[in-house]
Amino acid sequence: MGKDKEYITTSSLDDLIEKAGGCAVVDGGFATQLEKHGASINDPLWSALCLINEPHLIKTVHLEYLEAGADILVSSSYQATIPGFLSRGLSIENAESLLEKSVKVAVEARDKFWDAVKNVPGHSYNRALVAASVGSYGAYLADGSEYSGNYGPDVNLEKLKDFHRRRLQVLVEAGPDLIAFETIPNKLEAQACVELLEEENMEIPSWICFSSVDGENAPSGESFKECLHVINKSNKVKAVGINCAPPHFIESLICKFKELTEKAIVVYPNSGEVWDGRAKRWLPSKCFGEENFELFATRWRDSGAKLIGGCCRTTPSTIRAISETFKERT
Ligand SMILES: C[S+](C)CC[C@H](N)C(=O)O
Ligand SMILES: N[C@@H](CCS)C(=O)O
Ligand SMILES: [Zn+2]
Fold this sequence. Notes:
binds S-methyl-methionine; TIM Barrel; two-stranded antiparallel ribbon; about 15% strand; binds 2-amino-4-mercapto-butyric acid; binds zinc ion; alpha/beta; 14 helices
């Protein structure tokens, strides 16, 4: 009986973590790697502009992260939203089809890569999972508010649920393995995500990641204790953590999260550079260089994180270093 229950509640995400030796590797900055290929994304749609202008680059970037050893690909939909696309003159049908495309391209890249490597003797890859990226409302606003959590007095729970609902439905219909809520900056939006997962009866696992600008709290100033209290009530959320925050915040946040939740912990920090939302550019990190990333990643793994990768300004070389370091130790 105990075994049956265990079997039934095991998700594809748990399986992957186990196959990866206890800690799976998430990919790195999608937008960052697009830019390395010359994509211009200084735009309110940011990385989602590529879905319109340069869709061929999306698959290239996904394949580069797979080749580097990513166990999980995060799709190109972070800043892809129906209102965002409508404001560019696209129809609802076109907007939805671009959302669908963001997942399908990632699935195609995963399948192509896996077909090529699965029978190669001695290969060290896992069949990757595709996470549909759901960026925060602040990402859509394109004013840097995913790092402040300040949505103003007019944004309430229902408005956030309305904003996320249709996009989530379309992304999930396209067939990802999981849902990745990214850079959630406040408790209200975490609540909206949790309620939507229940109301829409989502059957694939989700993770919810917060940003953090002080290394202790959500960007809104609300404590992670409050934020995780909301998330712990949901069985649909399988992992919770931090993305796109500086790497030197991560170890202590993992320790904090371990006290606040039984869920798996996911961390994929940025390079430590700081986003200037007005100028739309990254400002240099004061105390972090990319060369340290895999050493930090080992400490995050030893602290108990089960999903580790990179966010903005990290690249396939960051992910390769993490993947190789982890594989040496398993
Ligand atoms: C993760 S941030 C660097 C993405 C871009 C931001 N939402 C903006 O549009 O300004
Ligand atoms: N995964 C996103 C960034 C999240 S902050 C992207 O690179 O498009
Ligand atoms: Zn990021």
